[in-house]
Amino acid sequence: MTMIPHLRRLAGAITCMTSISHALPAAAQPAVAAGRYHNLGLTSDGRVLWWGTEFGHAKRGPPVFPRPVEGLPPAVAVAAGWEHSSAITRDGSVYEWGFSPYRVRQVYLLQPTLGPCEAAAILTGGHGKNPCAEAEAARKERMFVERSMRIPGLPPAVAIAATDSHSAIVTRDGEVYCWGLGAFPTKVAGLERIKAIALGQFHGVALRDDGVVIGWGSASAGAISYQPEPSAKLCDNPGPTPFFSGAIAIAAFADSTYALRADGSVWAWGSSWSRDPATPKDDNPDNKPDAFVARRIATLDGATMLGGGRAPSALTRQGLAVTWFRALFPTPGERRQPSLANIASLSSYSSILALRPDGFVCTMGDNMYGATDPGDKSLEVQRFMPVPLGDGKGALNLVDASLPLPADACASQ
Question: Which residues constitute the domain of residue 188?
């Protein structure tokens, strides 16, 4: 196996999962959403802040320090993708910004090819100056959504998820709609009575109201379905398949899925998770391929919430946030499990965001793109720290910006 596809899978997916009650809240509950190149914070008055770094190789992206998203009505839920973000507003409408899959699809429809310059590129055999470079840059500029845009034609949404190049929602009726670069929003057949969703790069996962976990998309990418190979058409793939039961929460990574049961046990399955030698594995009496075996990876007293990604995390009802790292190149026996007390909500992908009840946000993890700590040159921030505002003094607070930061606000356990 070559390293490039493996790294592409690791770099390519974002997950965000929201548990719901099929009713739109009257006001926003402060929340956080961790993405690949950027992060989101939802304030108590419905404003959405975003921060991070440039989006991949495109020289566009969020501000380095938290700034409000432009053109977005008061929101009640948010999801951070790879190079785009999504939000649900108070009336159930869905908005996107950044390199929105919906906008990218619109641009491709208006300009499906780059015209004569492509013929010139073919005739030259790809040598010399790229005759399409200027047109490609102009088209990519049109794809970037500076001010958030509303996605038309969707039923009112109550939960939202985002990944590499796809978004998905759960409607008030418990149905799932999905869209990506190749298609406008469509309903995913076979998903009903859904209360939570999460997305990997090539697969989706849904939690039904009876605790059954349903996967769709590529089986090799963390789902259990009829699609044997990764497919860019995540939203067009039929045949969601039940795989796990008794769950109260779910989360996902590029090619892995996580589930939490009421007894506090955390379970994982998928191709990359099973290759991590740092994680103990339960017995496999049926000799199934590792990717198709749900394995218990932790048991946490009173766990109520999961975060996915390379740094999966969990939150207990006592307010204890726990994370355990899957290193990009894991060392046998290495298991770091930092924890943080007095936490109300969390989200994780490459980095971890932990929201305190007083509104301050603590973060740690991947700093390769500067999204965790722009002032730190290390690739990974290995301690929880407040999210800086960039003025040299303040720290992000999603409840009351005037509060002073407690000295031990982000002290690890």
Answer: 3-113+145-386
Residue 351 lies in a domain: yes
Q: What is the pTM of this model?
A: 0.85
What pLDDT does residue 268 have?
A: 85
Above 90 in pLDDT, residue 324?
no
Please state the three-class secondary structure of the chain as a single string.
CCHHHHHHHHHHCCCCCCCCCCCCCCCCCCEEEECCCEEEEECCCCCEEEEECCCCCCCCCCCCCCEECECCCCEEEEEECCCEEEEEECCCCEEEEECCHHHHHHHHHHCCCCCHHHHHHHHCCCCCCCCCHHHHHHHHHHHCEEEEEECCCCCCEEEEEECCCEEEEEECCCCEEEEECCEEEEECCCCCCEEEEEECCCEEEEEECCCCEEEEEEHHHCCCCCECCCCCCHHHCCCCEEEECCEEEEEEECCEEEEEECCCEEEEEEHHHHCCCCCCCCCCCCCCCHHHCCEEEEECCCEEEEECCCCCEEEECCCCEEECCCCCCCCCCCCCCCEECCCCEEEECCEEEEECCCCEEEEEEECCCCCCCCCCCCCEEEEEEECECCCCCCECECCCCCCCCCCCCCCCC
401: left (phi over 0), alpha (psi -120 to 50) or beta: alpha
Percent of the chain past pLDDT 90, that is, above it, reads 45
Q: How many CB atoms lie within 10 A of CB 313?
A: 30
Residue 139 lies in a domain: no
Per-residue pLDDT of 254-268, as tens digits, reads 888 899 999 999 998
* C-alpha span between 153 and 266 (Å, rounded): 37
Is 119 within a domain? no
Q: Is residue 334 part of a domain?
A: yes
Query: Based on the structure, what is the number of domains in the chain?
Result: 1
- Determine how many CB atoms are found less than 10 A away from the CB of residue 296: 13
CA-closest candidate to residue 200, choices 312, 308, 64, 314: 308
Phi-psi region of 136 (alpha: psi -120 to 50; beta: other; left: phi over 0): alpha
Taking a C-beta distance cutoff of 8 angstroms, is the pair 42, 78 a contact? yes
pLDDT at 9: 38
Predicted pLDDT at 251: 94
* C-beta separation of 79 from 42 below 8 A: no
CATH number where 64 lies: 2.130.10.30
Other Cβ atoms closer than 10 A to 53: 19
